[in-house]
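Notes from the 1:1 (GR / supervisor)

We went over the backlog. Supervisor wanted to see one worked example end to end before approving the batch request, so GR pasted a single chain during the call. The sequence is below; no edits were made to it. Supervisor asked that the structure be written out right there so they could see what the output format looks like.
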Amino acid sequence: MNAPATLPLPAGAGPDEAALRWLCDPCPDTNPSAPASVPLGAVLEAAIDAKLVCLLAHRLLSGPADAELSRPMRSVLGQIVRANTLHNRLHRGEAVRIVRALTGRGVPVAVLNGLAYDTVLYPPGGLRQFTDIDLLIGADGLDVTLDGLAELGFTEPGRGAHTRRRSTGDPLTPIVSVDITTSLAHTADPADIRAALARTDSEGGVDAREELPVLARADALTHALARLAARPRWSGLADAARLALAAPNLSPGARMPLPEAARSGWAVLRTHLPEVFTHTSNGTGTSTGGVPGRGEETR
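Structure output shown during the call:
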């Protein structure tokens, strides 16, 4: 039997879960070192399975100078982060190229999930791991989008009906995959998608030419929570927690009703990061606020 692509959130409270919750927590109270009760090897294995190893490497390398990390271990952790930085940079450049081509054809588009979260939630340095470029468009722009991707060299079919890939010639990232969707985790209503696309924000690095359209924070939070509920993953928990703390005024409550799927996502946050969030008795939640942990500052 094949192992799952990502580690599902465990139901128990073992030492590995404590280490992963520490990584998902945007503002841990402890010093930036893995929980001392868990051997580093076990933490590394759990972080790799959960797609949080770059975040782990960053926290360990940002820890006290006298932390018990050997020079070879520091070198390997640094190489992991640098390799993912190059991977993310290549995908960002491809996404910029695609977005320019699509907007030039009159197709509204937003970058979703891994690349979007890497852009707005994590410090520079390749901490958010992802495998492809997720793009949201309206259903009426699908044919134009696929034609535009073909002109840019994305002609190879992928694992999804609307996934296209191209070879890059890059030894580190030989293939770039683009996954096109016309729905969000909490809605497939065309009117909702058009509204979300109209509310997008432009985010990117210091170079304005690399700005990418991403969902407005309220839409991004609702999508992330619903996605977490539908497919509980540690990386999704880390994303949803950071989105919620980055925009506490958008937390669910009487002023901002959430779809059922998104409320279920809050239940996942409540279960696995109880020290980060407080919740009202009606099942919705409000963020306690807070700041990123030492060594991890949002952009």
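Supervisor's comment: The longest helix spans residues 71-104.
Batch request approved.
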